[in-house]
Amino acid sequence: MSASHITAIETEVPKNKVSQKEALRFMTSMNELNTKESQRLEALYRASGIKNRYSVLSDYGKTSGFSFYPADQKKELPTTKVRMDVYAKEAIQLSYGAATKCLQSAKINPKSITHLITVSCTGLHAPGQDIELINSLGLKSNVERTAINFMGCYAAFNALKLADSHCKAGNAKVLIVCTELCSIHFQKGKDEDNLLANALFGDGSAAVMLESNPTIKSLELKDKYCDLLPDGKNEMAWGIGQFGFEMKLSSYVPDIINGGISRLLENYKPGFDYYAIHPGGKKILQVVEQALGITKEMNTQAHSVLKNYGNMSSPTVLFVLKEIWDNLNSSDHSKEILSMAFGPGLTLESMTFKINHNA
Fold first, then answer.
1. 241, 288, 299 from 329: Cα distances, Å
2. Calpha distance 59→320 (Å, rounded)
3. Which of 13, 17, 208, 213 has the greatest number of CB atoms lying within 10 Å of its CB?
């Protein structure tokens, strides 16, 4: 049976870079927080482990002159339809940017792509991104395509598993594109879950190329394991409201994840060389490090992505994997990576990779 190998990973973010200080000012103003509430929110932002995030919207860096949200806090926020119009326009640009760089890095002719897998939970429309990418990238019109929607932060693993099946079934070249516009779903509200969600999420896109045969530098997909923690079903949720998609993210999520890590680890031998952990939040990373018995320094790539991009949902773990990928050399040949992500359900997804680096 053929194996499957990641042969390129590329990322893309919008042009609007938003510091946590700017985001804090925006959230304080829009939620009309009093002094005590403002101080509590400031403490949350300081402890987030995030320095900057990116958004397709320019409003988060402003205190007035908004182009998307109403300047009058008494007015209703944009409807779900208005937000989906923004998604339809902006998501494809990010997806195209990441996918184009990925094809160039893999040195692959777009016409040779056999399968296209698109991933998103922050927007939908039909014809969707898959068809738009076929046209804009110049893929064959009969390329096999699959859309993985509304699965949240762990969805990239489902895309990788599907691509793995395609590669093992034959001589496949699979392009995966994960794109999320989390920032278009800002919700007003002073409750802890809402404030926490608004403190973490940003926008971004990641594209991955998988092939049946290894190249000079590649990551071979090895073991994979997923688990469901029903106790966390109500602690992380993602629904469609009248004024955008509504995220429920409880502060109890790290504790629930901690309880499930031991079950996950039973399926793997101990001692990996690298770790690509989805940075769902600073506390989640700390809990995972404790459960794995690793230091923050051994998980530095996840902390770096959290600091510089925040949580972008599905592409985030691929940003972490890219930070590892970009620094690999021949001394890393045959070393192994353990990667994992978490999402609604509460779902734990994990996968291991073997590094091939023959030059």
1. 47, 27, 18
2. 27
3. 208
What residue type is assigned to position 319 of the chain?
Answer: F
What φ, ψ does residue 142 adopt, rounded to 5°? Answer: -100, 15
Catalytic residue from among 153, 167, 178, 182? 153
Q: For residue 153, indicate whether it is catalytic.
A: yes
CA dihedral 187, 188, 190, 192 (to 10 degrees): 0
The domain spans of the chain are 217-357
Tell me if 339 sits within 8 A of 321, measured CB to CB.
Answer: yes
Return the H-helix or E-strand segment holding 225.
strand 217-228
For the chain, give the longest Cα–Cα distance. Answer: 63
Pairing state of beta strands 244-249 and 115-120?
unpaired
pLDDT tens per residue across span 246-298: 887 777 688 888 878 888 888 888 889 999 999 999 999 999 999 999 999 99
Neighbours of 35 (CB within 10 A): 7
Say if pTM beats, i.e. exceeds, 0.90. Answer: yes
For domain 217-357, the CATH superfamily is Thiolase/Chalcone synthase (3.40.47.10)
Give yes or no for a contact between 210 and 102, defined as CB atoms under 8 angstroms apart: no
